[in-house]
Design brief:
- Helix content is 54%, strand content 6%.
- The chain has a domain of 121 residues: Up-down Bundle (Glutathione S-transferase Yfyf (Class Pi), Chain A, domain 2), CATH 1.20.1050.
- By secondary structure, the protein is an alpha+beta fold.
- A hairpin with a 2-residue loop joins strand 3 and strand 4.
- Helix 6 crosses helix 7.
- The chain has a 4-stranded mixed sheet, covered by helices on one side.
């Protein structure tokens, strides 16, 4: 069965974490809002579903609709061997993904620290202050946690969980990609002290299906409408 992914058609955003998992799994999916009249279909489902998702992304599998990125990945991971089968391993993988969600939210708030409804230009002073904290403290703190997980993995430091790729490896790859776009100077300095995170990022980029996806038109380029935005003044 072909999945239906519902997300905004012009940005990577949180939907990209789902796209990467579907691409790595080789799963058939339709990126609905990028199809003709796709936004109409997205809004219609949100307006009329019995269990309406709060916001995109959400995934439709037959009659099942799953919202929230971490929940979607929990669902995909269990069905496409992108998560451990044992309950403890699955819960640990989900916990890591939820922490990644926290990290992504903080990255977003660097350019919208006051209100999502305001333009970046309306909160530039606050964004400069928030970004300095993010660069100096939050990026190192989060990435050091992932570095520690990799170092303590009993199965080896090539993956965050176990001895094979899981969806959180893909998600960490996407975070590093996003930070490389938004904060290239800051990230370069931090990664010098995070060799395992850097190695995981390189390894995911080399995976055949991911490599093909990144080179395809299905991969939307980063831009200043998404979560990871490059404003040079925020990179220090």
């Amino acid at each position: 069965m072909t999945y239906e992914l519902y997300y905004w058609p012009t940005i990577q955003g949180r939907g990209e974490f789902v796209r990467l998992a579907l691409e790595e799994a080789g799963a058939g999916y339709i990126d609905v809002a990028r199809q003709p009249r796709g936004m109409d279909a997205l809004m219609r489902l949100m307006d009329h579903a019995e269990h309406p998702p709060f916001a995109p992304p959400f995934l439709k599998d037959g009659e099942t609709i799953i919202g929230q990125t971490a929940a979607i990945l929990l669902y995909i991971g269990a069905r496409h061997e992108l998560a451990p089968k044992d309950p403890a391993g699955g819960l640990w993988t989900h916990q890591i993904q939820l922490t990644i969600a926290d990290f992504v939210a903080e990255a977003h708030d660097t350019h919208h620290p006051v209100a999502v409804s305001l333009y970046y230009e309306d909160q530039k002073a606050e964004a400069l202050r928030r970004s300095a904290e993010f660069r100096d403290n939050r990026i190192p703190k989060f990435l050091d946690w992932f570095e520690t997980i990799l170092a303590r993995n009993p199965a080896g430091d090539a993956h965050l969980v176990g001895d094979r790729l899981t969806y959180v490896d893909l998600s960490l790859f996407q975070v590093v990609e996003g930070l490389s776009y938004a904060f290239p100077n800051a990230l370069k300095q931090v990664l010098e002290d995070m060799p395992r995170v850097a190695a995981l990022h390189r390894a995911v980029a080399r995976r055949p299906r991911i490599k093909a996806y990144l080179a395809s038109p299905r991969r939307i380029p980063f831009n200043e409408e998404g979560i990871f935005r490059h404003y040079p003044e925020l990179d220090g």
